[in-house]
Amino acid sequence: MQNDWIIITDYCDKCHIDTSFIDLLEENGLIDLRHEDNGAYLCTDQLPDVERYSRLYYDLDINMEGIDVISNLLHRMDDMQREIDRLHERLRLLGDTF
User: Fold this and answer.
1) What's the DSSP call for residue 63?
2) How large is the angle between the packed helices 47-54 and 19-27, nearest 10 degrees?
């Protein structure tokens, strides 16, 4: 699978956010950027996360530490949901054998 990349300055201009916000996200380990001679790039796969973080930061006035906690909790919830789905499938398969 090929990743598409977007120039950070272009993204920030279109979304009306500061490039320093993207830098903060990277510094806090919430996103990964690719740095090259002519600028920094964001993988388009990360855009939904950046948009969510942007809404938390700008609309709800949640600081970076709070965004990090929320992100970790959402990832844990996703992991738990996958585990629940897996267990439901196992129960369904066990029910079919009886």
Assistant:
1) -
2) 110
- Cβ–Cβ < 8 Å for 39, 7: yes
Q: Kindly state the greatest CA–CA separation across the chain.
A: 63
The answer to whether 55 touches 92, Cβ cutoff 8 Å, is: no
Mean pLDDT calculated for residue range 7-27: 94
Say if pTM beats, i.e. exceeds, 0.85.
no
- In three-state secondary structure terms, 79 is helix
| Contact status, residue 4 vs residue 43, Cβ threshold 8 Å | yes
Q: Is the dihedral of CA 9, 45, 51, 31 positive or negative?
A: negative
